[in-house]
């Protein structure tokens, strides 16, 4: 017998973005049901590195979202248990030659005008910041606002905290796939259908990450979310050989690129549990999980160029994931005027962990009629329609 | 006596000549085909690593390369799974302290 239940809001996706939507919505007194066909953080989130970065973002709407998010993550880190491994470690972007350093200087100057803290580091200062860095670099910029969390634990603890005191209540339905969106006579959202029954709610949030496009289709609208595959290489546990998030200046160009071809630019960071994580490759190959030795070879080569000491340690394993991106590299956040009651919170590409709290806060403010923390017009979900 | 029953004895094996390896500078005897872990166990050594957080002694748990409990520093390389690495004449095994990479700390 199919079960039936109801809530004020259904969040589809138990990744970090869905968890943040549930958290801020529940905190404003809204009752929330979170549905995911897999486990908490089992899709896009679990395959991430946990980057909370402002350093890689051009001035613009995404940077505004990121600046708000780093502030919110700091607040959350006081409320959530230390197990989420929040580290306000700062980022270090390094340039290999003077031309690249000059480009970085210009980029950082524009970022500073947008509210980013960026401190130029000379070659000597690089040695103090990261003693194991290659000696032949031209310089770099230190970004003290960059931080890190363990993404799966952060999502799980956000969900747990969402149901805490003063909350509108959060129910989790895991292992349940949404197979349809229920609508009323005027096309407005009435809930969702899963294999085990219908769940009723006047609002649903599409937080399905890389699968946000499929969910939008179920709701009868187009949202061109595409997966971009990324590999992360994991070393054996080490002492703190890498203190910050360290990456080469080329990473910024790769993040902004629309190319389908394989791109790699090493982002190297230590973790509280010991292993060093080496990201980030990007390629458009659909939902193909096949191991790419070429991607790993390039990541390893670039990481050892930054940190020669890594040539003497072993990589234990690798993991791959899909970064959900939209053609203009901005997420879709907010109400979808094509289907009343439908909201989107997806398409954050490789920045979803970082951008999750601001996204969740916006969704909650939209639902509760509160003041929006920033202009969400650039994130409007229907912007890819001819009329949008 | 039950304690004298060894895998080699049970199958009636006739292994080739034993050779020497060292564990923390102590000379031990190993048989061809034995893993480092088997050779250490045969010599009565049950722990050859301290855990990273609490410094507790650790040795073989699963014995089949899955659990990573038996990590040891073998010929100066840390984090080798003693249950998988075959013993070779002259191998130098040392107790691995924590992650075994103290030299990299900054």
TrEMBL record, chain A:
It comes from the Bacteria. Keywords: Oxidoreductase. GO terms for cellular component: cytoplasm. InterPro entries: FAD-dep_OxRdtase, FAD/NAD-bd_sf. Residues 8-365 form the FAD dependent oxidoreductase domain. GO terms for molecular function: oxidoreductase activity. Pfam families: DAO. This is FAD-dependent oxidoreductase.
